[in-house]
């Protein structure tokens, strides 16, 4: 991996580190980005979100949705129907993560492909070297 040294000072390093820490604080855990991805195709009710995500418990889902709401990525809308209907949808601000999500997706696909390729070649190398 190439390390960019241009404009590398203690101050810029510290600022970069703080920015990454801030981003990770907001998007921490394994559920925030999958929740955002799930809501990209439109508003959903709580149970719809839980079904599309899979292994998330209602307690954790509730906490994660509240965190996303506090950080202005999700809006919770309550409709006065009988029974009350509650939906969750992405805010316009959540679109600021589009490039981050795209880059993570691309990297994840490359990483998975690399691991699969290395698993296929590892036994062959052992036989040749063995």
UniProtKB/TrEMBL annotation:
The keyword DNA-binding applies. Keywords: DNA-binding, Transcription, Transcription regulation. InterPro entries: HTH_HxlR, WH-like_DNA-bd_sf, WH_DNA-bd_sf. Residues 13-116 form the HTH hxlR-type domain. It comes from the Bacteria. The keyword Translocase does not apply. Signal peptide: none annotated. Pfam families: HxlR. This is HTH hxlR-type domain-containing protein.
């Amino acid at each position: 991996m190439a390390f960019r040294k241009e404009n590398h000072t203690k101050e810029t390093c510290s600022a970069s580190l703080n920015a990454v820490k801030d981003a990770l604080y907001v998007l921490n855990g394994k559920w925030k980005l999958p929740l955002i991805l799930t809501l990209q195709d439109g508003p959903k009710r709580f149970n719809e979100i839980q079904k599309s995500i899979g292994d998330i418990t209602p307690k954790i889902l509730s906490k994660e949705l509240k965190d996303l709401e506090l950080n202005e990525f999700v809006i919770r809308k309550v409709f006065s129907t009988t029974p009350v209907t509650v939906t969750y949808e992405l805010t316009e601000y959540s679109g600021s993560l589009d490039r981050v999500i795209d880059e993570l997706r691309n990297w994840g696909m490359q990483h998975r492909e690399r691991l699969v390729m290395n698993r296929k070649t590892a036994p062959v190398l052992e036989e040749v070297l063995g």
